[in-house]
Write a structure and sequence with these properties.
By secondary structure, this protein is an alpha+beta fold. It has helices spanning 2-29, 41-60, 74-99, 111-135, 143-182, 243-250, 298-304; strands at residues 198-200, 207-209, 214-219, 224-230, 233-239, 256-260, 263-266, 270-276, 279-284, 290-292. It starts with a helix and ends with a helix.
Amino acid sequence: MKTLLNLQMNILRSFFGGISQFIGTFIASFKKPMATSINSIRGFIISLLVGLFVAIVAVGVQPFGLSEFTNDAKTLYLIGFGIVAFVGMLVAKFVLPSILSNFYNDQQWTVGRQIVHLSATILIVGTLIMFYSNYFNITALTFVDILKTVAVCILPIAITTFIQQKLFHNKFSTTAENINSSLESINPPASKQLFPVMVFGESGQKLSLIPNQLIYAETSKDSTDFYWQSLMGVEKTTVQTPLAQVEKELAAHPQFVRLHRNFVINMRGIHKVEGNARGYRLRIARTKHEIPVSWKFHKKLEQIGQ
């Protein structure tokens, strides 16, 4: 009897342990890194394409009772749906991230946040379309209709997002490994100057370095943080100079590349490239620093590793 009871307890522990592990894995899948197009040229292009698609569908297919709408300027009114959708996409891609900046941190973007963002985008676009349609008496739409649309779309959104995450992760992780395998053989062109010395800063504090000393530079609006190699190790010096002046000074030294809007990196200072669904990140030699690579510079990084 005791043996049978122990067997039953072990089965229950195994069953509930399996459920607990499944729930943990399921929750963790929503925390996986994911790419985003917020606050970017890609986001603007996507918004434009969505607006164009909505306009084409409204004019060509005329769903949701649009075919019953009669007006001498009907085509223009239907095209208006595309314009409204475009505006709604811009709100979701640019205005909302500026309001909820902590949530829309692209360096902490995950699958879960992407699903929430896409659902919110449908809600915003749908609500604007509802107001537009009702204001001009084109077709009757209610907020309940919009909520139903969002509810119906959540599952396809989730499935699509998980597929994208898997594809992006495989692509960027594989490419990062290929780049890493060729890092040691990368030999940037020599400096165009015979005795290369770089001077940063126009007035007040100045910093003079030879090219191989500078590991990378991080710029803000009016100042730049230089991370450079000294006899004592890696040091940081802040100089009041903008990115344009930094790039001008580095133009004669091909070993420096810009792979992010705020960073200029010495190719010899790249220790490792890491890739996931969010894109690429650079591990910098002799430091614990990591630098993200902007999407528009992905091709540039991949060409460096070829």
